[in-house]
Amino acid sequence: MSVRSNPLAFFAHFWKRRELIGQFTRLEFVARYHGSQLGVLWSLASPFFTLLVYTFVFSVIFKPRWANAVNAGFLDYALILFTGITAFEIFAACANRAPYEIADNSSYVKKMVFPLEILAVSILFSAMIESLPALGLVVLGVACTTGKLHATLLLLPLAYAPLVFLTLAVCWTLNALGVFMRDVGHVVRVFTQLYFFLTPILFPAEAVPEQYRYLLPLNPMYVVVEHFRRFVLWGQGPAWTELSAVTLVTFVLALLAYRWFMRVKGVFADVI
């Protein structure tokens, strides 16, 4: 059975190329901060200042109420928002980069033996590594405010799984579309901004009118963000039904996107 239709062969395909993926992940990560004085600390700058603005607006002015918030104070809101922003930024950073990824690496397109499909994986891993300092700040904030760390932190890979599959599905799709339609990158930037505000990151799910609340689990990033908060902030176990369903659906989407990418990548050299 081929890689495109066999899930085990799918994982084995990338496992065999793990060294190459590691090299490109390192190159991508280093390139982002090449020549900067603060290096990886810049990965905290944008979400940190965004956090300050959002936290002030939503904890002082609008004052939404999170059911799981411990003290409902400024720091509590900051941790809730920062956790959501950190998870979403992994997806957004990869999605915004994906339409240009093949064109930016056009020298590899001409090499028929080069596995172009690993580029999306490398970008994703680089974004995940870049998010670790922000996630570390959240964990430190939880330790300072509660005096302990939740054992559910060990379950965090369960929340990463659908995030990884969803991001890869979107990236492989946009990798290919970006080759044939150069304007798709502008559409993606608008979409990611809208998607951010449509996902309960700045507001609790309870703020959504009850007649529409059943739609929330259909948004994969809602489930991802909620489980990041469950595992890191609130010490809660997973909502197995929602998490399992979203993980399965996003995995199938990743397989379909990968299959389509592999089918069309042979013509990239003729288009670029």
How many strands, what sense, and barrel or not for the largest sheet?
A: none
Shape: globular
Count of the separate structural domains: 1
How many helix segments? 11
**Low-confidence segments, ≥5 residues, pLDDT <50?**
none
Percent helix range: over 70%
Radius of gyration computed on alpha carbons: 19 Å
Task: Encode the helix/strand succession as letters.
Answer: HHHHHHHHHHH
End-to-end C-alpha gap: 32 Å
Describe the structure.
By secondary structure, the chain is an all-alpha fold. It has one domain. Helix content is about 70%, strand content about 0%. The protein has helices at about 5-15, 20-30, 40-60, 75-105, 105-110, 120-145, 155-180, 185-200, 220-235, 240-265, 270. Helix 3 (about 40-60) crosses helix 4 (about 75-105), helix 7 runs parallel beside helix 10 (about 240-265) and helix 9 (about 220-235) crosses helix 10 (about 240-265). The protein is globular and about 55 Å long.
Summarize the topology:
Layout: H1 7-15, H2 18-32, H3 42-61, H4 74-104, H5 106-109, H6 118-146, H7 156-180, H8 184-198, H9 220-234, H10 240-264, H11 268-271
Helix pairs in contact: 2-6, 3-4, 3-6, 4-6, 4-7, 4-8, 4-9, 7-9, 7-10, 9-10
